[in-house]
Write a structure and sequence with these properties.
The chain is an alpha+beta fold. It has three domains: 214 residues, 2-Layer Sandwich (BirA Bifunctional Protein, domain 2), CATH 3.30.930.10; 49 residues, no CATH class; 86 residues, Anticodon-binding domain (Rossmann fold). Helix content is 37%, strand content 23%. The strands form three sheets. The protein has an eight-stranded mixed sheet. A hairpin with a 2-residue loop joins strand 9 and strand 10. Helix 6 packs parallel to helix 9. The radius of gyration is 27 Å and the shape is elongated. The mean pLDDT is 92. It binds adenosine monophosphate (AMP). Adenosine monophosphate binds next to strand 6, strand 10, strand 11 and helix 11.
């Protein structure tokens, strides 16, 4: 019997896995610099949580959730995104009462039953943040700036920020009914759009099949109330004051139901790397106190791939790989102790020694594991306090005092 990783999942080894840790570490440092605290929530939650928060009509909930029942018949779902679980945790831990302001960040696996393709997996990773209790566009600006800084730190060059406002409960209903009027006159909508027309007409704006057909579609900006208009202007001013350029994008609506006012995406070429927005009603809708909130998430795999395309990440310091070999079996103990001590310096990546093998086969092994250097413990040199260093790339060899190495 042979097993394969399930469709849409993959194994990540060595330098690929290391890219994840590098990015996660860089992101968590940037988050901490801005007083975000880390949160880890369960990978599975009550399925109803996602239904209520993300929305029944969204692709994520209607088509892509991994649903299962446990032995007691509880209906659970693997998390398809991070926000719902964090809002649930925020309320359950009564942070809505005790935190005047709460800034959280997270990272981890998400699950969506999507058709696998380049940059699209069924199990993938996101890094994201949620900022509770601040209704000001300054919080939106801080989130956009933070997301941008992480992507910039990853070395991605052609980043573009897209922003829009979906309005609030005062102005969005007007826009909504104008959209329904506009779309109702169209006869060639795809079946998803027909289904969504009454329930969530905003989603039609980013339909992958139909969106190119919509010329002359009403723009949300024409319906903004004075408050939403002012908010959006303030946001733009704050981004500009920090030297960020952006595009306003009337058709940007994002896939999830809970967004209000500001929504944004950060793209690299055609690829959407990060997305987020404000969701001022969700905490209350899920049973908490009325709490303003804004969040974003980026796809870790996509960011890594964009960083590689920009020629970075790979350039993050790779440690030199050193293999410890023994020319004389009796030096194994000394070589072993040296290997452990050397690896503790943190400056190199050390493997070996192995016993019971000739020096020739040890050197072959060092080549196989792509060691940059081999440190050879040989009796004559060792008695003079020295070891031999063989450069595996250009095959040169030198002697050094053992005590100088560490
Ligand atoms: P969303 O939660 O849909 O707003 O997605 C936020 C980000 O997560 C996207 O911009 C992508 O970078 C990433 N993402 C979403 N779905 C997938 C997937 N199936 N595979 C890999 N990355 C994804």
């Amino acid at each position: 019997m042979s097993f394969k990783a399930p469709r849409g999942t993959r194994d990540i080894f060595a330098r690929d896995a290391q890219d994840f840790s590098i990015l996660e570490r860089a992101a968590s440092e940037i988050f901490r610099n801005r007083a975000f605290i880390e949160v880890r929530t369960p990978i599975f939650e009550d399925a109803g949580l996602f239904l209520r928060s993300i929305g029944q009509e969204t692709d994520i909930v209607s088509k892509e959730m991994y649903l299962f029942e446990d032995k007691k018949g509880r209906k659970l779902a693997l998390r398809p995104e991070g926000t719902a679980g964090i809002v649930r945790a925020f309320i359950e831990n009564r942070f809505d009462l005790s935190f005047p302001e709460g800034k959280f960040f997270y990272g981890g696996q998400m699950f969506r039953y999507e058709r696998p393709q380049a940059g699209r997996y069924r199990q993938f990773n996101q890094i994201g943040a949620e900022y509770f209790g601040n209704a000001s566009p300054a919080a939106d600006a801080e989130m956009i700036i933070t997301a941008f800084e992480i992507l910039e730190t990853a070395g991605i060059k052609d980043l573009k920020i897209h922003i829009n406002s979906l309005g609030c409960q005062n102005c969005r209903p007007l826009f909504r009914s104008e959209l329904i009027k506009y779309f109702s006159s169209k006869t060639d909508l795809c079946s998803d759009c027909v289904n969504r027309l009454e329930k969530n007409p905003l989603r039609l704006l980013d339909c992958k099949i139909d969106s190119s057909k919509f010329s002359g579609v009403p723009a949300m900006s024409a319906f903004w109330c004075p408050d939403c208009r002012e908010n959006f202007e303030t946001l733009k001013g704050l981004l500009s004051s920090c030297g960020l350029s952006f595009e306003t994008d009337d058709k940007l609506v994002r896939g999830l139901d809970y967004y209000t006012k500001t929504v944004f995406e950060i793209r690299s070429g055609q690829d959407t790397l990060a997305g987020g927005g404000r969701y001022d009603n969700l905490v209350k809708e899920l049973g908490g106190q009325n709490t303003a909130a804004v969040g974003f998430a980026f796809g870790t795999e996509r960011v890594i791939s964009a960083a590689r395309n920009s020629g970075s990440l790979n350039s993050f310091a790779q440690k030199e790989k050193v293999f410890i070999a023994i020319a004389d079996e009796e030096l194994f103990k000394e070589a072993f102790a040296f290997s452990i001590k050397y690896s503790k310096t943190g400056g190199v990546c050390v493997s070996g020694p192995v016993n019971g093998k000739s020096l020739t086969s040890q050197l072959k092994f060092a080549d196989k594991i792509a060691a940059d250097k081999t440190v050879i413990f040989a009796k004559t040199e060792f008695e003079q306090g020295k070891i031999i260093i063989k450069d595996m790339k250009n095959k040169t060899q030198s002697e050094q005092q053992l005590q100088n190495i560490i």
